[in-house]
Amino acid sequence: MTLYIIISASIVLNILLFWYVVRLLRKFLFISETISDLYLTTKAFQVFARSLYSMDTYHGEPMIQELVFKIKEVIEEVENFRDIFEYTLDEEIEEELNATEEEATSTH
Prior knowledge:
Layout: H1 2-53, H2 62-84, H3 91-107
Helix pairs in contact: 1-2, 1-3
């Protein structure tokens, strides 16, 4: 009789453990996608700020230069998290942003 109780308890605990692991994996995937979106958004903003800084009207503006510097710091921090959650990055969008950034850097 006690063997049936132990087996039943083991089955219930395994089901609960499986349910918990599935919930954790779903949260992990959500966090990973969110960090990827955050990285891509900040990268796009950095490209925009650099292009704004290189415009004739704003070239040399210290506030925009400081903004570009601060954005770089934010991107470095996001990249630290991105390295952990790199499995859900949209590589096509990232490649497009890198190409845009290289193009903006090479023209100015």
